[in-house]
Design goal:
Length: 352
């Protein structure tokens, strides 16, 4: 009897595990999502595209949270691409909570125009999101992004945060080591922290258009790609259209020295106003950039030379004084001097 009960419960447990791995089938059956098979490998699903009602998906996740497994089975070749839509606005669904995708292996996630205002820190848990390569959070109401939100997205390659109101801080993207494309357009940005792109050394595409940027620091953007081969053959593309950009030395440095491909329209100075930067290939900004740098560099060299010369002269005087002092002491001790010279007068020095 005990053996039969054991077998029965083991069978039930196994069935639940198997059903949990195919959570997308339950979602389709309950009309929460519509599925489309993207790829098939050896008669098994490789990639499944799910188009889901955001509100029903959240309600379904809350209702069935106790039945979800803790970890995905690595032997299964099932990946999920999510594309959500919002039938109507409801304040109940403005927060992306943790564990919502616990039993999925997310490869692509599109959450565009869902009125999201907050993302909980563990919303993108490691077991479900360690394979993700694309994420779209555009056209929401996000204002702040905690640094740890992206801590499990180390393989993410494309991130779209456009049309929000995000204020960037120093460490927003420090965990996104593999990111190649970042869209920050339409966020009303007025200032970019100097260290915000420090960790994005593989970035190939950066969209900063439709913001309120007036000044761009060349040092800030020079850190987005540190691979010399990529810089030479595939330099980063930076879009800065519809910004009141000042085409100063920083902009010319990014293009002429770092070879970045820039797309922007100059607002200042007056002689560049309204001109596309791509049309300024024959312009010579040396009068305001290059020569100024050379003059400063030259002055620094002259100052260093003067200091070195003075130091060298002082050292020679000290050496001469030390030599005379030593000879004077030796002569006095041996009785060679007929007259001991004064401190400042060595003209009467006579060696017998």
């Amino acid at each position: 009897m005990v053996l039969k009960l054991t077998i029965f419960f083991c069978t039930i447990f196994f069935i639940k595990k198997v059903l949990a791995l195919y959570e997308h089938e339950k979602l389709v059956q309950e009309k929460v999502c519509f599925d489309r098979i993207e790829k098939i490998v050896e008669n098994q699903y490789k990639t499944i595209h799910l188009t889901c009602n955001w509100q029903k998906f959240v309600d379904y996740g809350n209702k069935n949270s106790n039945n979800k497994i803790q970890n995905c089975n690595e032997t299964e070749l099932i990946f999920h691409q999510f594309d959500f839509y919002l039938p109507f606005s409801d304040p109940k669904y403005v927060t992306l909570k943790k564990d919502l995708f616990k039993n999925f292996r997310v490869q692509s996630l599109s959450m565009k125009s869902l009125n999201l205002a907050k993302i909980e820190e563990n919303a993108f848990e490691k077991e479900s999101f360690k394979h993700i390569v694309f994420m779209d959070l555009s056209s929401n109401k996000l204002q702040k992004i905690n640094t740890n939100i992206f801590k499990n997205l180390e393989v993410l390659e494309k991130l779209n945060l456009s049309n929000n109101k995000i204020a960037l801080t120093e460490n927003n993207f420090q965990h996104l080591k593999s990111l190649k494309s970042l869209d920050l357009s339409g966020n009303q940005l007025q200032y970019i922290h100097p260290n915000v792109f420090n960790s994005l050394n593989r970035l190939e595409y950066l969209d900063l258009s439709n913001n309120n940027l007036e000044k761009v620091d060349a040092c800030t953007l020079s850190k987005i790609n540190t691979n010399p081969i990529t810089l030479r053959f595939v330099p980063p593309i930076i879009l800065m259209n519809n910004n009141p950009i000042d085409c100063d030395c920083n902009i010319f440095y990014l293009n002429r020295v770092l070879k970045y491909r820039l797309n922007l329209t100059c607002s200042t100075p007056k002689y560049y106003k309204g001109k596309e930067f791509i049309d300024l290939k024959n312009e010579d900004p040396s009068s305001t950039c290059k020569y100024k740098t050379i003059i400063i560099f030259g002055l620094l060299i002259c100052a260093c030379c003067c200091c070195c010369k003075n130091i060298s002269k002082s050292n020679r005087i000290l050496e001469l004084k030390n030599t005379l002092r030593i000879k004077n002491e030796q002569s006095v001790n041996n009785g060679y001097y007929t007259q001991i010279p004064t401190k400042n007068d060595h003209s009467n020095l006579i060696i017998s």
